[in-house]
Amino acid sequence: MPYSEQTVTTVRPWSDRTFSLTLTRPSDFKFANGEFVTIGLKREGKLIARAYSIVSMADDDHLEFLSIHVPDGPLTSELVHVKPGDSVWVNSKATGSLTLNHVLPGRNLYLLATGTGLAPFMSMVRDPATYQAYEKVILVHTVRNIAELAYREELENRVSDVFRYVPTVTREPFECSARCSDLFISGELCRQLDLPQAEPEHDRVLICGNPDMNKQMTNALRETGWTMTNHSGVANFSVEAAFVIHHN
């Protein structure tokens, strides 16, 4: 059977639109940091399932997910109401194109996320192996409202010579209101952080967000000499294209 029944252990609301939940982990479930898996709920005997990037690390004993609440979404309108002890069904196979294996080694690694697109990058920034592969890891997370900056305190506490965290908010007063894609494309991100301008020969970019941001970044990078990872090989940037919107 491709799905196993797992138990909700914690639920954490971030805002009226976003929340995290943790589940028990199947003993034989394997994944790489940055991958996603299909999870779902059974209603009247029917499984309603969607793809979710995994927030927890590959060697954690639990599974953690970050979700948006879409009021009329077939799954999230139900998932937002789960509580500890409830059941969630987890597919046995994880996949995805946002792992360290999807980009070449390099100088600096840029992780660009909007909304719940942060999820796959949490597992990566929590993993010491990420910092062994690159000189610096830069995470830029763009949301509409301050409350949607999930894991903000944890990320701020992780900031070091090797890890930089740049939160941006577009619909409320905040220290930075620019979108992550605009910051990167304009070169302002590197200027702000006093880093050399990102170059395809040296640096790597992973992208996970709304379709407009994914498309904007993909076009801008390709136009300036970057190559996207595809089925035939590993290159210098990768986009999670397996699902267009993170959750509904």
Helices and strands, with pairings:
Layout: E1 3-13, E2 18-24, E3 36-43, E4 46-53, E5 62-68, H1 76-79, E6 87-91, E7 108-114, H2 119-125, H3 128-133, E8 136-143, H4 152-158, E9 163-169, H5 180-186, H6 188-193, E10 204-208, H7 211-223, E11 237-239
What does this entry look like structurally?
The structure is a single chain. The protein has 248 residues and is of the alpha/beta class. It folds into 2 domains: 3-91, Elongation Factor Tu (Ef-tu), domain 3 (Beta Barrel); 100-239, Nucleotide-binding domain of ferredoxin-NADP reductase (FNR) module (Rossmann fold). 20% of the residues lie in helices and 31% in strands. The chain contains 7 helices and 11 strands. The protein has helices at 76-79, 119-125, 128-133, 152-158, 180-186, 188-193, 211-223, and strands at 3-13, 18-24, 36-43, 46-53, 62-68, 87-91, 108-114, 136-143, 163-169, 204-208, 237-239. The strands form 2 sheets. Strands 4-3-6-1-2-5 form a 6-stranded antiparallel β-sheet. Strand 8, helix 4 and strand 9 form a beta-alpha-beta unit. It starts with a strand and ends in a 9-residue tail after the last strand. The model is unreliable at 244-248 (pLDDT under 50).
Task: Give a short summary of the structure.
By secondary structure, this protein is α/β, with parallel strands linked by helices.
CATH topology of the largest domain: Rossmann fold
Order of helices and strands: EEEEEHEEHHEHEHHEHE
Global morphology: globular
Trace the largest sheet across and list its strands.
4-3-6-1-2-5
Classify the beta-strand content into a percent band. Answer: 25-35%
Oligomer designation: single chain
Spatial gap, N to C terminus:
24 Å
Considering the protein shown, what is the CATH homologous superfamily of the largest domain?
Nucleotide-binding domain of ferredoxin-NADP reductase (FNR) module
Low-pLDDT windows of residues: 244-248
Secondary-structure arrangement, i.e. CATH architecture of the largest domain: 3-Layer(aba) Sandwich
Q: What is the number of helices?
A: 7
- What proportion of the residues is helical, as a percent range? 10-25%
Radius of gyration: 18 Å
What's the total count of β strands? 11
